[in-house]
Design brief:
Helix content: 10-25%
CATH architecture of the largest domain: Roll
Strand content: 35-45%
CATH class of the largest domain: Alpha Beta
Distance between the termini: 52 Å
């Protein structure tokens, strides 16, 4: 059958990224407690397209995902990027995989269990020289109490739920759980899915004894990462969904 994609294009314009986006696909990721966890990812896969080709072969992207079975690992992630380049005659390849990751988290006093879900991503690319770049990312819900409000108010202080986005490059494997715990320890308080009254009292008092601006949160995360020799690069941002404003508070740090 005639291969339209391989026909020559005469406009002489290369394409930086071409491929598929928002493909839902079942995956298995490493779980620190249970070994592995099944989840569903939203996947973007792209390659570059030289100026002389009319198009790429979209179906081949989906076929290559079978290389991920039975788990998503850094080794398999790298292998799939190289296979994308090989089978699609491309110089570079890029893949983004975003998925919910579930951790059983017990309430601080009653120890009532509940599942917390965190949005996680693995982002990878392979350049024309074959250098593979991998970034691991987590989005962590947190709670914060405003230090300024606490200082100037006669009664309490305003507090809100926020979100911290942490991306890292590293020398050796890093657990998703370790990234999440690092962020939660840097907030006024972490967030739970199940809280009894004794837990709500504990969490509220913990947060009010530990007020944090978004600036404090990103600096505390950055300080811990700077002291970790395994981390070669990081990006951390905090967004507070303000309870007394019609806007969010935001701070961001990227390492050099």
């Amino acid at each position: 059958m005639k291969d339209i994609q391989n026909q020559r294009d005469y406009r002489n314009i290369p394409i930086n990224k071409v491929g598929i986006k928002n493909l839902r696909y079942p995956i298995t990721v490493r779980d620190r407690r249970d070994g592995f966890q099944h989840t569903i990812a939203s996947i973007n896969m792209y390659v570059d397209l030289p100026h002389e080709y009319k198009g790429t072969h979209m179906s081949r992207f989906v076929e290559m995902l079978h290389l991920l079975k039975p788990e998503v690992s850094l080794k398999k992630f790298s292998a799939i990027l190289e296979n994308m380049k090989k089978h699609l005659n491309a110089a570079s390849a890029h893949m983004e995989m975003t998925f919910p990751y579930f951790i059983e988290k017990k309430a601080p006093v009653s120890t009532a269990p509940g599942l917390m879900d965190y949005t996680c991503s693995i982002i990878g690319s392979s350049d024309p020289e074959g250098k593979v770049d991998l970034v691991s990312e987590v989005v962590v819900p947190i709670s914060s109490v405003c230090p300024c409000s606490m200082e100037i108010s006669d009664y309490g202080a305003h507090n809100q739920r926020g979100e911290v986005r942490l991306s890292t490059r590293f020398r050796k494997f890093i657990w998703i759980e370790d990234m999440i715990e690092l962020v939660e320890a840097s907030a006024s308080s972490d967030v739970y899915s199940v809280l009894k009254r004794v837990d709500e009292k504990c969490v509220t008092e913990k947060a009010f004894s530990n007020p944090k601006f978004v600036e404090d949160i990103v600096r505390d995360v950055a300080k811990k990462l700077q002291a970790d020799d395994n981390i070669t690069w990081f990006s951390v941002s905090a967004e507070n969904f303000e309870s007394i404003h019609n806007h969010s508070a935001y701070a961001h740090i990227t390492s050099s």
